[in-house]
Amino acid sequence: MPEAITARSWLFVPGDSEKKMAKAMQGPADIVLIDLEDAVAPENKAAARPMVRDFITANPEQRHRLWVRINPFDGPHTLLDLVAIMPANPGGIMLPKVYGRADVERLDHCLSALEVANGIAEGSTPVIVLITETAEAMFRTGDYKGAPRVVALTWGAEDLADSVGASANRDDAGRYTFTYELARSLTLLGAAAAGVTPIETISADYKDLDALRLRAEAVRRDGYRGMLAIHPAQVEVINAAFTPTEAEIAQAQEIVDIFAANPGVGAIGYKGGMLDRPFLSRAQQLLKLAGRG
To answer: What are the entry keywords (predicted)?
Structure first.
């Protein structure tokens, strides 16, 4: 089973535009999410599939960054997507609009057969799952512990609004209303329970980079480890927001060193306050995130 992934920025790019795929790959996104779902009109999906396969095949050195969002199982395109793209051995798969863990297990069976058929190590293709896009899935956000192939969970608000019949998912101030903040929280908790990476959903206003920065910094404080992007301009902002600063690293190292110098101590004084073991754990996690642990 693949391990949880460390990736800050996940940039969507339409799978029917070789020019946009190439531009995204040449940029700083940690993951390029080549989209065969919402970004490709139904009449263009058949032409997009071989385009995506050929693009990944032509860039083997970047394959680990080139993931594909396939179409969901509640439509006619999923197996056609997988049969077309798996010969290229993409870096990973995004599964949208799930109804629960059963969809992930179904995807695992499909991928195993296609991996074997294409000479790819069975079980080696990792998966990120969009776990809040249907009302039913909201009740199953804690079910992904041990789910095959899953390395990350993320959430979406637009399809969820459609699923519940909402006319909007934000209030007059532009903030997500309760149901969608609940989706964000349940995704974070579900990822923590599963031991996989939580990834924040998109910011649709790609021109407001200050708002993007504030939101990305806020969700990182909450525990998110990366964010979806819909425009190349968002990527560097996201990368910076999810990269620990030198000040954060220095403080975390200081906390780790204090506990190391006082073995067996459960709590210790620090800058006028008290630190206990959860502070040590968070410091260790931050150093690991920064590549220092």
So the answer is: Lyase, Magnesium, Metal-binding
Q: Which residues pair with 269 in a beta bridge?
A: 274
Look-up: residue for tokens 């909402």?
166
Alpha carbon 139 to chain centroid distance?
20
Q: What is the pLDDT of residue 96?
A: 98
Backbone angles phi, psi at 74, to 5 degrees: -85, 15
Beta carbons of 49 and 81 less than 8 angstroms apart? yes
Q: Which residues are 226's β-sheet partners?
A: 199
Q: How far apart are the two ends of the chain, measured CA to CA in Å?
A: 23
Q: Please list, in sequence order, all residues whose beta carbon lies within 8 angstroms of the beta carbon of residue 120, skipping any fewer than 6 positions away.
A: 86, 89, 114
Alpha-carbon torsion angle 229, 230, 235, 239, nearest 10 = 0
Q: Name beta bridge partners: 151.
A: none
**Cα(124)–Cα(257) distance, integer angstroms:** 37
Q: Going from the first residue of the chain to its last (293 residues), give the mean pLDDT of each consecutive group of 10, the final group possibly shorter.
A: 83 97 98 97 97 98 98 97 98 98 98 98 98 97 98 96 94 94 98 97 95 96 97 98 90 88 82 83 84 73
Whether the CB-CB separation of 229 and 238 falls below 8 Å is answered with yes
How many residues are there in the chain? 293
Look-up: residue for tokens 């924040």? Answer: 200
Q: State the Cα–Cα distance between residues 273 and 289, nearest whole angstrom.
A: 25
